[in-house]
Amino acid sequence: MRLRNLILGAASLAALASPAFAQDLTAITGGRVLTGTSVIENGTVVIQNGRVVSVGTGAAPSGARVIDARGKVVAPGFVAVDSGLGGSEISSVNGSDDLSNGANSISASFDVSYGLDPWSFTLPVARLGGITRAIVVPSHPGGSGGHNHQDDSDFAGVGEGGYQSPSLFAGQAAIIHLAAGNDILVKPRVAMVAPFGEAGAGVSGGSRGAEFTQFKETLTEVRLYARNRAAYDRGDLRDLSLSRADLEALIPVANGSMPLIVTVHRAADIQQVLRLAREEGVKVILDGAEEGWMVADQIAAAGVPVLLNPISNLPGNLETRASRMQNAAALDAAGVLIAIKGNEGSIHRARETRYNAGNAVSHGLPYDAAIEAITVNPAKIFGMAGQFGELRAGAAADVVVWSGDPLEPLSIAETIFIGGQEQAPTSRQFLLRDRYRDGGEGAMPPAYSR
């Protein structure tokens, strides 16, 4: 009965906000507007048909529903990167975690978008933290996505058929929105994911040198396959170390059209990844990069973006011995495009993304750069610039009205729009609170008396 009530509660949350974009004309007026790239005092944001119509200082258009934001802050919805939202409910319960994969013949071709759950209890909680979009990534050794606890070899396949076992690749990431409804997928297969450094060495025989050699050989095989598909189909091509599905999935990586999210921490490993990207013509995104500040100029010169957690400052191992709270500030000052992550895979703690941005500000990152790092920058990094993460005409109407500075922990997201649709300001936790707090109907199961 309790489980049924919780499921019904989740359905009620979905019913409060239809996935269809709103047609109503709405104007949010009088607030301090953070567009993602600038600040407008006493601004007006007009939205209609799921999109931002205009951002400026004019009056609300005639006939619009008006939301008074005087004394408040209006900001774009935040974007959670390196996240497991919608892909994992409880990481320790295998049946509820669709972010990890151990199949031998499916590695690079593993597509997390097929395991997304629009009714996940984690989504409303993240939404209340101002998160309106997320980049969902497969779990992998050395990464924070999915809050995994696996050892570096736990993603190994069974070694059948001559395929790589374990594989260097964890699978492909997807972009989702967090609006209530039955379809949260925005775009699948936006990036490939691979561990490097110590974790990558762990799936390549224990040596960093072996990993880089194996990676280069894999790309050689992918390019060979791409040029000789007909021969492969006839069985006239030499044996390859990946399945056909994985070879197909890696063609966009090999030709530079799909970015490769590389989990890497040590400065020396970052240098080698930059060298590899240059030699192979691969487009990379650094994930982690706790020692990135040591080679910030090299990262900037390569034009490589970084996904980072700015509060990572403890040397948990020899890869992160030089981690420091000023990492975000140093990378930004060098001209690196950064995106700030949440904590523990950005699932249950995705809402802490804004806290991490605030911490980065307290350690030298300019305030406007911190806002960019959780709004416009993730959109740029994943090829969605101008489509979300910014308050500008034509962008998705992901708009949040805050009671105060969104980087201050005590500020509350009072009104949340995703794709122009206002979202219910509640979550499973609030439903449970309301159910039991006042002893109302259903507070106790029928079998109990009070």
From TrEMBL:
Pinpoint the Amidohydrolase-related domain residues.
273-410
Does the record's keyword annotation contain Transmembrane helix? Answer: no
Task: Say which species the protein is native to.
Answer: Brevundimonas lenta
The record's listing under InterPro entries reads: Amidohydro-rel, Metal-dep_hydrolase_composite, Metal_Hydrolase, Metallo-dep_Hydrolase
How far does the signal peptide extend, from start to end residue? Answer: 1-22
Alphabetized GO MF terms: hydrolase activity, acting on carbon-nitrogen (but not peptide) bonds
Name the UniProt record assigns to this protein: Imidazolonepropionase-like amidohydrolase
Keywords, A to Z, come to: Hydrolase, Signal
Specify the superkingdom: Bacteria
